[in-house]
Automatic annotation (TrEMBL):
Molecular-function GO term, any one: monoatomic cation transmembrane transporter activity
Pfam families (alphabetical): MNHE
One GO term describing the cellular component: membrane
InterPro entries referenced in this protein's UniProt entry, alphabetically: Cation_antiport_E
Record's protein name: Na+/H+ antiporter subunit E
Amino acid sequence: MRSAIELLLWWGLLLLLNTVFISSVTPLEVAVGGGVALLGALGAGAVRRAAGAAPGGPARLAQALWAFPWTLLADTGRLALLVLSPARRREAGFRTVRLRPGTGAAWAAALLSSTPGTYVVATEDGVLTVHATSSRVSLLESALTGGAR
């Protein structure tokens, strides 16, 4: 039962992300996206079980979900500026993000990595190593850390 719920959650999340990123939502696009999302959900569940990962605590989840769309928009704009202005590329680099206690590292890393401005490359004991396109702290990152760095 637990794996069926996990599969459904992964499928829903992947289908939602696919729907956000496609240009036109037609029945064919939804059907293809649903099939690919199912394959991705099966793979994600297998990888999670193999790694022994757990989603972690729900602390800061509501704040993170509220901040996600705004961060997605802001990071998309910053990425466009980065592409158009090579001088801004010096701001990109690696840094560490310390999550607030009770915040699940797995879901926080997935949420951060699904924005165009930040990608989590490692996690250990609530500390994420991220590659970011800017030295600015995003609204999502602030929500996950409680404003601390």
